[in-house]
């Protein structure tokens, strides 16, 4: 039997959509019953309502060890997708607790119950830092603790450390490091907010680059890795290194909206994140645009996906076509 944590999030929900098409029974962990509706909506969008009924939902929390023991009882394989994503410095403690301590709990219970294989969803943010003579980030790029990293990146790197500890103690593991993930649904979080902002009329764009990937590809690769003999390896999951300008334009085109047309210079984004800090204090609201986000808007990062392509002979889908299709689907909701 399979257990999925984070099944009410973007990756976990798309993973459940694919897993339920197989023969193995699937169990999914949830904290609040109302969040299951988002996953159910995803299944409905793809006309797979009958597959949703195959999921055995069980209440639990990765920070509550006693709740994990019955959740993992009878489980053979674990897909650990649950994580907290934030670039607000105020969330540092929450990030470390959920992403590091929560992952440690999952690893410990998996070891105690004799789980056969464990797949951990990390992030390209947890990969290493380029040296002066390097131009592309791979799984072998070394993490430099002396360099600036967001609290989110530090928490995901710490989570990976817990998974590697589990591997050293006898747990079969694979780690995937996806780039910016795009998929249908979950419009109020992560990459989904980009579609909402462009639909409302986004004026600004930047020329930084990132690694982008479809949620469907991430889920497909995870399943293939878990069905393989691979263990003790991690893989960068990036379909394409692409500029934010290209991403925004593809989404705008899919929505038949005006493309963002004002270039947000580094000076403008530096002013913007400081103003956002000021208004967050004044209005007692969460941060919407942080220093980390301002830096990322202009950073040119290139990730090497050759390891996963060679291991599985895998071909990623075209990310621009994928973005346009999601944008069309989003527009059809209004």
Q: Proportion of β residues? A: 15-25%
Structure summary, number of beta strands = 12
Q: Please give the share of residues in helix.
A: 40-55%
Low-confidence stretches: none
Strand order in the sheet with the most strands: 3-2-1-4-5-6-10
Envelope shape: globular
CATH architecture of the domain at 2-183 and 210-241 and 301-319: 3-Layer(aba) Sandwich
The main β sheet shows up as: 7 strands, parallel
Please give a quick description of this structure.
The protein has helices at residues 10-19, 36-45, 49-52, 65-72, 92-113, 151-168, 192-200, 215-227, 244-255, 266-283, 291-296, 306-312, 319-333; strands spanning 2-5, 26-30, 55-59, 77-80, 117-121, 172-178, 180-182, 204-205, 209-214, 233-237, 240-243, 262-263.
Describe the structure.
- This protein is of the alpha/beta class and 334 residues long.
- The chain has a domain at 2-183 and 210-241 and 301-319: NAD(P)-binding Rossmann-like Domain (Rossmann fold, 3-Layer(aba) Sandwich), CATH 3.40.50.720.
- The chain is 46% helix and 16% strand.
- The protein has 13 helices and 12 strands.
- The chain has helices spanning 10-19, 36-45, 49-52, 65-72, 92-113, 151-168, 192-200, 215-227, 244-255, 266-283, 291-296, 306-312, 319-333; strands at residues 2-5, 26-30, 55-59, 77-80, 117-121, 172-178, 180-182, 204-205, 209-214, 233-237, 240-243, 262-263.
- A 7-stranded parallel β-sheet has the order 3-2-1-4-5-6-10, with helices on both faces. Strands 7-9-11 form a 3-stranded mixed β-sheet. A two-stranded parallel sheet has the order 8-12.
- Helix 6 (151-168) links the parallel strand 5 (117-121) and strand 6.
- Helix 1 (10-19) crosses helix 2 (36-45), helix 4 (65-72) crosses helix 5 and helix 5 (92-113) packs parallel to helix 6 (151-168).
- The chain is globular and about 55 Å long.
- 42% of the residues are buried.
- The model has no long low-confidence stretch (mean pLDDT 95).
């Amino acid at each position: 039997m399979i257990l999925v944590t984070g099944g009410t999030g973007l990756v976990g929900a798309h993973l459940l959509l694919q897993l339920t098409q197989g023969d193995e029974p699937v169990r999914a962990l949830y904290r609040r019953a109302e969040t299951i509706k988002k996953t159910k909506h995803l299944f409905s969008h793809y006309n797979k309502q009958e597959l949703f009924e195959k999921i055995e939902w069980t209440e639990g929390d990765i920070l509550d060890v006693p709740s994990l023991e019955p959740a993992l009882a009878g489980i053979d394989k674990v897909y650990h997708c649950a994580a907290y994503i934030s670039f607000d410095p105020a969330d540092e403690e929450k990030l470390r607790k959920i992403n590091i301590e929560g992952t440690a709990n999952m690893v410990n219970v998996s070891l105690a119950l004799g789980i056969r294989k464990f797949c951990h969803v990390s992030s390209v943010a947890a990969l290493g830092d380029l040296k002066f003579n390097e131009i592309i980030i791979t799984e072998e790029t070394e993490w430099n603790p002396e360099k600036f990293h967001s609290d989110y990146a530090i928490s995901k790197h710490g989570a990976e450390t817990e998974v590697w500890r589990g591997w050293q103690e006898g747990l079969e593991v694979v780690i995937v490091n996806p780039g910016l993930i795009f998929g249908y649904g979950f419009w109020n979080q992560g990459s989904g907010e980009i579609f909402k902002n462009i639909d409302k009329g986004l004026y600004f764009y930047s020329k930084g680059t990132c690694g982008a990937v479809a949620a469907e590809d991430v889920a497909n690769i995870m399943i293939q890795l878990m069905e393989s003999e691979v263990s003790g390896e991690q893989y960068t999951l990036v379909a394409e290194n692409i500029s934010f300008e290209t991403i925004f334009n593809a989404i705008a085109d899919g929505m038949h909206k005006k493309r963002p047309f004002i270039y947000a210079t580094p000076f403008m984004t530096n002013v913007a994140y400081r103003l956002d800090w000021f208004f967050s204090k004044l209005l007692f609201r969460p941060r919407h645009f942080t220093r980390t986000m301002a830096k990322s808007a202009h950073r040119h990062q290139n990730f090497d996906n050759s390891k996963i392509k060679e291991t599985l002979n895998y071909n990623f889908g075209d990310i621009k076509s994928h973005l346009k299709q999601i944008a069309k689907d989003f527009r059809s909701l209004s």
